């Protein structure tokens, strides 16, 4: 098998989808939809290698397998809710952005990361829709909450690794996290601010400290689990 090396993407793949189930309505269609979502992610990872002309015959074999499995399983929820196809269409522009940066070999670009976050979060909205058949304020909430959390995560990881000596990234990260918490409180959603407080604290406390990539990733997984639990328990 070919497994993506971007470990942080797993949280982006799973958490918004779980929000869609928890905030929306659980249905058996979530199972084939998630299987399709999972294998689509695996396929797109290899597709980016193809774009960069780094894919081997082994990669291409698994690209075909992953794509086939994704198509088989997505056909099930599509048969019941054909309008799910619109979510796929909504993801195309962001996927094009990812392809552009892959061709330029600038996958670490902040813009590229945000485009990927948008698609992962749209997956959460699709999960919500397959259970409720609606796009309402709850769907908008899970989308925005997911995007904001993972954008903050992107800021944090960059300031700890690739942009650790870039003061502009430091201040952008700090302003983003503090502003997010203040905005939640000002809007009367103190409980939501609690979901983002650890993100703000770790962005400032860990900045400038020597830390291995593995440790940065472990802390971020813990933070993502905390964020997910707060949303699931209080919303």
Automatic annotation (TrEMBL):
Domain of life of the organism encoding this protein: Bacteria
Pfam families, per the entry: YwiC
Keyword entries, A-Z: Membrane, Transmembrane, Transmembrane helix
Residue ranges crossing the lipid bilayer per the database entry: 7-28, 34-51, 63-80, 86-102, 114-134, 140-159, 171-196, 216-234
Protein name per its UniProtKB record: YwiC-like protein
